[in-house]
Structure formats: structure tokens, C-alpha cells
Amino acid sequence: MAIGPSAVERWLDLSTEELRTQVSRLVSSRLPGDHAVWQAIRRQPALVPRIRGVLSGLAATAAGSKDEAMQKVWISKARAALDQVVPAPVKTARKPVVKEVPVEEPEPVIELKQPEPQERPQAKPAPAMLFQEPS
Q1: Which of 15, 50, 60, 125 is deepest in the core (most CB within 10 A)?
Q2: Cα separation of 107 and 110, whole Å?
Q3: Are 79 and 52 in contact (CB under 8 A)?
Q4: Which residue positions in the chain have pLDDT lower than 50?
Q5: ∠ CA 54-58-64 to the nearest 5 degrees?
């Protein structure tokens, strides 16, 4: 089965093992998150949790293999592509004409002065201590 936006619609009917094969191929293809395949997957709300489960299984399978680091990077990018929110196109509305209103005089600013720091009395020096030698 091919990996494409039209093929994604049939992934809901696949067994877990077949879906695992398809997701493994999708992960290794390293498509960007805004690719049409990822967009088609995100449009299928029942498919997203199944793919998350398959990605967890792939991560567990990759553990301990010589390609573990590479596989984990690809899987984390696939998870990010699943979680990516594509903003809907924004309709631009005409801005209403705003009439200028005369500005009121601002309230006078009252300056608050902080109290001046008071001088601390100087501490008395400690008395000198005399020690006697034991006799």
C-alpha cells in the first residue's frame, strides 16, 4: 500500500500489524509536518491515537538497537507532526472607520518623594581584651 493522502483514509481499516508497517514507512520517509500525508492523518480523529500507539511500539522496538538514536529522532518528529496545529485560513474583515475623539487633558501627575535616609549612629568600638598567661 502506498503512502499518500488518499491511502491514509484506508488506514482506519488496517490491522495493527499492517498499520505498524505503514507508520514505520511513514516515519522513515521523514516527511515535514506540513506535508499532505500528515494533514490527512490529522483530519482523521480516530486514526491519530492509533498512530500514537504504533509510534510508542516503534520506540520500544528501537530500544537497544544500533539505530536507536536515529529512530528516536524520527519518531519524535513524527509525534510533533501529529501534534502540529495548522491554523485555519483567516478571513480578513474590513476595518471599521474610527472617528477621532478629542483627547481629554491627562490628570496631573503627583510626584511622591521618598523620605531621606536617616544617618545611623556609629557603633562604638569593642573594648580591647587582655589575656593573662597562666601562672
Answers
A1: 50
A2: 9
A3: yes
A4: 1
A5: 160
